[in-house]
Design brief:
heterodimer; A: mainly alpha; 5 helices; about 40% helix; extended; disordered C terminus; B: alpha/beta; 5-stranded mixed β-sheet
């Protein structure tokens, strides 16, 4: 979809107001280039780490939802293995354990949205 | 005529604008029709009625409420459902309350349209919520059409309605197409639709999940006769239609793309348990409590209500 309400001149003009280069000009000489290099390196490392990692597992889909490890109830009670109410109170015990039970099952039904 | 869901929304806006000069549209990139429903409206109705706004949801929502208070019928298009969180104050604490607080002297005939609510592939944590239950809870009129003709008819009624109405067009329903051989017409808010008659279990399905429920009903047909009821409007809810369906089946499963706690499925189960005929404990299939949809698609899918869970729930209420 082409958005035609901005002219090329307007876009070019506003590129000149980009706050990053403007802020960089206020820094001590060389610091901006140094920061750029450092961030580029971090991004490259993050990409490498991500590509080398296993694909995430649906069991862990809600890991870290709460900082104290609280596990949410699954979306369907009574399906195989669903802890149901147990998930509600299993605050510390379940921390770090497998994700909301029943999740693997629904992952199997991925036909969900054809 | 072969009608897509997005085209149906576009037709509804076009017809409403043509019919009533008080109707106008606010939103981001609506002049370009970026999301689809507003395509070509600027050319036909001009910038006085099709108002492209900056990224300023709180400002243009307040402006539209002001326009509604002074005799216009504005429609706001929101590009993503989470933007509704940003304007919850204006919609719930202002627009929703003006009629009562002025003793009926003021009305806010405002429509908020969210084309692409719920999960879209890879839109991740902050763009994938489906907050229709929040609005139903707050008492704002709330509509979730499942099909193109319902999308047309319900959006027309939302625009004509004297109160604020939020219309959620689920992203997963947008690809739905329908062969239409009749004239499109408004559909009254608050009326449910039985998509498939059945004798054993009533499945109440919201929005795009109507299509999942129909697939499950077809699949289970040899063993269980499933009735599929689409409430279409979540507030006001068509309770008589649900009661009538449960008179026939006596068993209930709700499939709802809300978070489990305080989602519309909870209200439907509670009302059925309090007031209606049930032969077995009802069940619901929802997102988990407090869901944040992850970026990775298998994780995103795993947290959304699906056919597999729905099948299990239907079998469970038959035991």
């Amino acid at each position: 979809m082409k958005l035609r309400y901005r002219t090329p001149e307007e876009i070019t003009d506003w590129r000149g107001h980009d706050p990053l280069p403007r802020a960089a000009a206020l820094l001590p000489p060389g610091l901006a280039a140094q920061l750029d290099a450092s961030v580029t390196e971090q991004l490259a490392a993050a990409r490498e780490f991500a590509l080398a990692s296993e694909h995430p597992s649906p069991e862990g889909a809600l890991d870290h939802l709460y900082a104290d490890g609280l596990r949410p109830r699954a979306g369907a009670a009574g399906t195989a293995g669903t802890a149901g109410t147990a998930g509600v109170s299993g605050v510390s015990a379940a921390a770090g354990a497998a994700g909301p039970v029943g999740v693997t099952e629904s992952a199997a039904g991925t036909g969900a949205r054809a | 005529m072969r009608l897509s869901y997005t085209k149906a929304l576009n037709r509804a806006l076009t017809d409403a604008l043509a019919e009533d000069p008080a109707v106008c549209v606010f939103g981001e990139d609506i002049g370009a029709g970026l999301a689809g429903p507003t395509l070509n409206l600027l050319d036909r109705f001009g910038p006085g009625r099709i108002v492209d706004t900056p990224l300023s949801e709180q400002a243009f929502t307040s402006m539209a409420i002001g326009a509604a208070l002074t005799g216009r019928r504005p429609v706001i298009e929101f590009q993503i459902p989470s933007l509704l969180f940003l304007v919850f104050e204006q919609l719930v604490n202002q627009a929703h309350k003006f009629s009562l607080m002025t003793g009926g002297q003021a009305a806010v005939p405002l429509t908020c349209l969210v084309p692409g609510s719920g999960s879209r592939d890879g839109w991740a944590g902050q763009h994938s919520d489906h907050p229709y239950s929040l609005f139903a809870h707050a008492g704002v009129k709330t509509v979730v059409p499942a099909t193109p003709t319902d999308a047309y008819g319900l959006l027309r009624s939302a625009i004509a309605d004297p109160d604020p109405v939020v219309v959620f067009a689920p992203a997963a329903a947008l690809p739905v197409r329908e062969t239409v051989t009749w004239e499109l017409a408004p559909i009254p808010l608050g009326t449910a639709r039985i998509h498939r008659a059945g004798a054993d279990v009533t499945v109440v399905a919201v929005g795009h999940l109507v299509h999942e429920a129909l697939a499950v009903a077809e699949e289970l047909a040899p063993e269980i006769s499933v009735e599929v009821l689409d409430p279409r409007t979540l507030h006001p809810f068509d309770w008589p239609a649900l009661a009538a369906s449960l008179e026939r089946t006596g068993r209930l499963v709700v499939v709802d793309d809300s978070n489990r706690s305080c989602g519309i499925a909870a209200e439907i189960l509670a009302t059925a348990a309090e007031e209606m005929r049930l032969l077995a404990p009802p069940r619901r299939v929802t997102r988990p409590d407090g869901t944040v949809l992850p970026f990775a698609l298998p994780l995103d899918r795993a947290l959304q209500p699906g056919r597999h869970q729905l099948r299990d729930a239907v079998r469970a209420v038959m035991k």
